[in-house]
Amino acid sequence: QVQLVESGGGLVQPGGSLRLSCAASGNIFSINATAWYRQAPGKQRELVAAITSDGSTNYADSVKGRFTISRDNAENTVYLQMNSLKPEDTAVYYCNADGFDLRPYDSWGQGTQVTVSS
Fold first, then answer.
1. CA distances (Å), origin 52, targets 8, 46, 55, 87, 97
2. Which end of the chain lies in a sparser environment, N or C, as judged by fewer CB atoms within 10 Å?
3. Taking every pair of C-alpha atoms in the chain, what is the biggest distance, in angstroms?
4. In whole angstroms, what is the distance from residue 57 CA to residue 1 CA?
5. For residues 61 and 49, is the Cβ–Cβ distance under 8 A?
6. What is the spatial distance between Cα 66 and Cα 69, in angstroms, rounded to a whole number?
7. Which pLDDT tens digit goes with each residue over 71-109?
8. How much is the average pLDDT of 12-40?
């Protein structure tokens, strides 16, 4: 399995930008896909963006054109570049990795708070 550590959250004004990082350790070659989810107060956790081992990406409609997910294989890190942030982007953002290492697994990071407010 893998262990995930997120960083990069914080407070930003509407229209601003943040970059989140998700550093993976452990059996990184077992990862099939890495994704960012978010959960706002009182709402269910939702998929924001995902990137597969072959580099394919997909995004939630609400963030298309504003967020970009990318991967640095040398650093074992997945990034989420968030531009044109809106108050409705406020949430705890979680990194997730799914893969297979003797059995299927689903690993989560501890989450990082993103607050968009003036």
1. 22, 18, 5, 28, 10
2. C
3. 48
4. 22
5. no
6. 10
7. 998 889 999 999 999 999 999 999 999 998 888 899 999
8. 95
CB 82 within 8 A of CB 93: no
Task: Find out whether 4 and 107 touch, Cβ atoms under 8 Å.
Answer: yes
Query: What is the C-alpha to C-alpha distance for residues 116 and 118, in angstroms, rounded to an integer?
Result: 7
> Which structure tokens are listed for 70?
């990318």
Is pLDDT at 43 greater than 90 in this prediction? yes
Q: If you search the block for the tokens 């044109």, which residue do you land on? A: 84
Q: Which amino acid is at 26?
A: G
Task: Tell me the mean pLDDT in the region 30-45.
Answer: 95
CB-based burial of residue 83 (10 Å sphere; 0-12 exposed, 13-18 middle, 19+ buried)? Answer: middle
Q: Which run of H or of E encompasses 104? A: strand 103-108
Name residues whose C-beta falls within 8 Å of residue 94's C-beta, 6 or more positions apart in sequence: 6, 36, 37, 38, 39, 45, 108, 109, 110, 111
What are the backbone dihedrals phi and psi of residue 30, each rounded to the nearest 5 degrees, phi first?
A: -90, -5
